[in-house]
Amino acid sequence: MEKFPKFELENQDGEVITNDSLTSTTVIYFYPKDNTPGCTTQACDLRDNMSELNDLGVTVYGVSGDSKTKHKNFIEKNNLNFDLLVDEDFKLSEELGIYGLKKAFGKEFMGISRTTFVVDKDSNILKRFDQVNAKEHADDLKSFLKEG
What we know:
There is one protein chain. The protein has five helices and nine strands; from the N terminus they run βββααβαβαββββα. The chain has helices at residues 37-48, 50-55, 68-78, 91-95, 137-147; strands at residues 8-10, 16-18, 25-30, 58-64, 83-86, 99-104, 107-112, 115-119, 125-129. It has a five-stranded mixed beta sheet. The protein is globular. Belongs to the peroxiredoxin family. BCP/PrxQ subfamily. It is an enzyme of class 1 (oxidoreductase). Keywords: Antioxidant, Disulfide bond, Oxidoreductase, Peroxidase, Redox-active center.
């Protein structure tokens, strides 16, 4: 089984989260940028489904290249009930192969592709979701988790 890479990222409060922090099944979702329409939709969808995800024994972390300050603002603005991790140097995103050249509105830029990993407490990747649909993300996750 493929392993999630070793990581050490700060959350919005400066607490360091590592593989050792994963004590149960964990959803680690990567998104392009705080306070953008698709990313806000995705985060709020997860927020609204958090009690059901928690009932399934799942912890959720969001990851982007934004700073702790931007993460804190995004959490407060949208009443998010999970931590956001800082990958400012995109080291983890690059290691996972989800950081690279993207195109939108006729422009090319470097960024994170919306991708989600479901990881067990031993850092085994149970499922990888590519091309995540921001509006249906929580439902897709719940379907997978209930099957497992």
